[in-house]
Amino acid sequence: MEIEECIAVWYLLNNKKKKLKRRRSLWVHPMLGLRESKGTYNLLHEDLLQDPSKFFNYYRMSIQSFEKLHNILENKLIKKDTTMRRSISSKERLSMTLRYLATGCSLTELHYNYRVGISTASEIIQETCKLIWIFMKEQCIPKPTREKWLEIADGFLKNANYPHCLGAIDGKHIRVIKPQHSGSLYFNYKHFFSIQLLAMCDANYCFTFVDIGDYGKNSDSSIFTNSHFYKNLSSKKLDLPNPDFCHKRMITKSHMLLLETKHLVYPSML
What we know:
The chain is α+β, with helices and mostly antiparallel strands. It has two domains: about 5-140, no CATH class; about 145-270, no CATH class. Helices cover about 45% and strands about 15% of the residues. It contains eleven helices and six strands. The protein has helices at about 5-20, 35-40, 40-50, 50-60, 65-75, 90-105, 105-115, 120-140, 145-160, 220-225, 230-235, and strands spanning about 165-175, 195-200, 205-215, 245, 250-255, 255-260. A four-stranded mixed sheet has the order 3-2-1-6. The protein has a two-stranded antiparallel ribbon with strand order 4-5. A hairpin with a 4-residue loop joins strand 4 (about 245) and strand 5 (about 250-255). Helix 7 (about 105-115) crosses helix 8 (about 120-140). The protein is flat and about 80 Å long. This is DDE Tnp4 domain-containing protein. One of its GO terms (molecular function) is metal ion binding. Belongs to the HARBI1 family. It is found in: Nucleus. It comes from Acanthoscelides obtectus (Bean weevil).
């Protein structure tokens, strides 16, 4: 047998071994089996309820907000118990997700603290975040009415002494591990891989629009022009307030959006 054939056979056999699933020696690791007695949620959550400031510090959310959010998501978070083991409760799932969002801790840390598998923690966080977005986006970031736009403009005038402003827009790079076969799509000018968050806020720093997930290599201006907000803006679907007429100067003043100077601004659309 030629050396090339030997190498090819070795490669195929080695590759086949890697694809074989490793047989589990344990159904559930003993450490994870103690979740209900020694997991962080069962040890700490009830104590946090006795101290609102500690609760807020841990979850970045008040007790009332936690309960309200749980009531909205509870039916979707509940899982059925099996003959083998009890399911993770809806409150524990929400607790784990909020702790992850509040601290940015690793899945490994949640694995040890909450006594769940790493893959289980990942699935819980992804599912819960998706449900939060589905059920809360219209409530937390509703489409502004004309009255709301005027209220935002009044806020910028009072808090920043900046008249006729409907919002401030900026972007943020969120570091990610490079997705497979993505080339340089996620590689940004700061020399790391990322997706982008583009957001607009009012004078009280509350989000009024968000666009998340664009490639890291794209500029904020290109993300803005590709966003749903821009499409609604260009098609006149945002119910923006009419320009104000200044009798003192005899000129018309349009409302505007604040962007960084390197970004594109389209005053004609406003």
